[in-house]
Amino acid sequence: MSHSHSTTTLFVATDFIEKKTATNDSKQSTTNTRNTNTNHNNNNKQQQPPPTQPLSKNQEALKLRKFPRTWVPLASVYELDPDRPTPLEFLGQKFVGYKQTPEGGPIEDDWIVVDDACPHRSVPLSEGRIERNSTAFSNHQDDATTTTTTSPISTIQCSYHGWEFDGRPQHGNGACVRIPQVSPEQETAALRSPKARVRAYSVRVYKNVLWFWPWPDVDVVQFALQHYPEGHPEGIMETIARDTPHPTTYTRDLPYGWDTLLENLIDPAHIPFAHHNLQGKRDDAIPIEMTVPESLGGFGTELFDSSLDSERNGHNSTNGNGHNSTHNDLNNHRNGHDSNHNSNAKPDTASGTSAKRLGEAGFFFEWQDRTMGKHRGGIAEFKGPYGIGYEGFFYPSKEEADTARGTHVANKRKTKETKQTQKQPSLLVSSNDDSSEHEHETKDQKKEELRVFQLGVLCIPTKPGWSRAIIMAGGSAKQPKQKQKPKPKQNDHAKDLSSISNANAQLESTTTNAAAAAADDNHNNNETENAKPKKKKKKSLIMIIFGLLPPWIIHTLSNKFLDSDLAFLHYQEQERLRHSSSSSNHNNNNNNNSNNNNNNNHGYYMPAQADRCIAALRQWLPLYTDYLGGGPTNRTYTLPPPITDRTQLFDRYHQHTSHCKHCQTGLEIVTNKIPKMAKLGIVVSLLISHVVRTKALYSLLAKMVALSCWGLLGLLRKIEPAFKVGEFKHYQNH
């Protein structure tokens, strides 16, 4: 683990720095050339650098938000149409994503994200088009000089007046490259204006997910050097899509907020009822055993002392009378041992808990339940601020599940503490307990024989009352053949890194520490890794069948699953906000963060252990975000009016199909291609039947073919609505 994280840290850091180096080298070379020409033509003239680009409206808005500064997931490139400028949203701000090349090329460099507004007249660029191999006059403005190229590039073109923009961060950086309405002389001056630019963002593709860096107040290179893997795609996705580098996905925009989406996914107790006959049965419901959520730490700073406390020394204590056990257990756990370690922590006025009890990176807990008649147990994680991950096992009996109770969270604590000591070698405490290692090895061997349960979801706050879920389907997407970038030599790396004076010292320190950690880890674990090669997991019959189906069929089935709790989640948050607002007005609390933050549990009565994760999430949200109000600008949290038209509430087309290339293909097949073939088959079959009417057998076969085609048309008419609108009525789900 250390070796992988160390090498990836170097890759992430050097990748950004190499791009900056290339830009700086280009600046220096062009500056020298232009200075030579300037001196040759007029020694008295001095070249004036162009003005820097101001913050865009999106950046100005995000700079004021209280929200973790991490890489932000936007969409799944597995589902995006590479030839379409796709509209994307994050925290109420609008962006557009597109692919630099239709196919091939390095994945990391191919996708581009810019603001979804043309600087000319604020028309959304997502309504535009991709101009492939554009030969527009490219006037790339940067901090020091202006370079001119005429090589073909892919630009995003505004369909209102034809302005074109080069969104490549390491090249055009959002520069306008064509204004058809002005003369060439006027165009040269107009293109140099910073007002002609559209803001372009640093982009990465990891695990088939498109990530971008929208924060103007935190430098992405420094973040890569100082904080890893927390806040990076590798850290957030660590337990969400572990088995494959290119997972298949299913994305849905949902008509309820980000906090409601997180709350729903972190809650295993709703499965038997909300997804009855889909992922379980109502009869599966049993008392769920859940440990008190524990912190995953912070981004760069561990906020939770991992010393043993009363909860970790023994089993979960249950409240005998069954009342308020969730809040009592959680508060006692947090106010007891933890407050001694955080004497300066401010209390959370809503619960009386320590404000630094939960770290910014999220929390984890162990749970045990029953689904589809089988007992299961494992670890669930909230990988703040976007990821929800489950890793567990199905057990043959309740007794075996009870025997394994506590081992999941113990292994998670051990992994977490190992990562902490690797970051802080001075605090490293070695353990040579061979019996403990043997015990873990024996348990791991038993677990290999159990059926594994995994679920990973990315939850994105798009706009008030809406959120996006990217579900990792578990399969492996087929990747097109791509041109690989040549690997630079070590000397080239050193030369590139040394040219950036501001980051050189920090990078050198990072390189030294990472190399040392990798060497130590490789030395300690080399024999174990070589002696115990991992066996490839055999795919189940269901997974094999699903792997043969086209993605659009799987997506239509997935739509049904999210339909099953969509309606009551939409109305739930409307009711919760009503309770929160009325309580806030009643209390008249003057706390700056009390604008709905401290009242976000009003209307909730949570007496069970299964509610512990919800209480933890509801306390995490106001600590690190202003999503529910408050923050530096004392935001007011509002929701759009409730959707009463169920065809709009279950609008699958706009929530999924419209931005999924697979379902667009499936819809085209179902509504156009197959119907044309079926109609042609009817006509041809009837003609053949007429021609061979004297031969009864052939005539009958032709009529049967025509009848089959007619039936196929009827079937397709029933399949088509699955792409466009859904519905789910629990009173009919017996």
Written account of the structure:
- This protein is an alpha+beta fold and about 725 residues long.
- Helix content is about 40%, strand content about 15%.
- The chain is built from 24 helices and 20 strands.
- Strands 13, 14, 15, 16, 17, 18, 19 and 20 form an 8-stranded antiparallel β-sheet that branches. It has a 4-stranded antiparallel β-sheet with strand order 5-8-9-10.
- Helix 1 packs antiparallel against helix 5 (about 220-225), helix 1 packs antiparallel against helix 16 (about 500-530) and helix 18 packs across helix 23.
- It is globular.
- Residues about 1-15, about 20-50, about 140-150, about 300-355, about 425-445, about 480-530 and about 590-600 have low confidence and may be disordered.
Q: What's the end-to-end separation, in Å?
A: 47 Å
Q: Give the proportion of residues in helices.
A: 40-55%
Whole-number radius of gyration? 29 Å
According to DSSP, the number of beta strands is 20
**Percent of residues in beta strands?**
15-25%
Mean pLDDT: 74
- Contiguous uncertain segments of 5+ residues: 1-14, 20-50, 138-149, 300-356, 424-443, 482-532, 588-599
Which structural class best describes the helix and strand composition? Answer: alpha+beta
Biggest sheet layout? 8 strands, antiparallel
Spatial shape: globular
Task: Work out the helix count.
Answer: 24
Explain briefly what this protein structure is.
This protein is an alpha+beta fold. Helix content is 41%, strand content 17%.
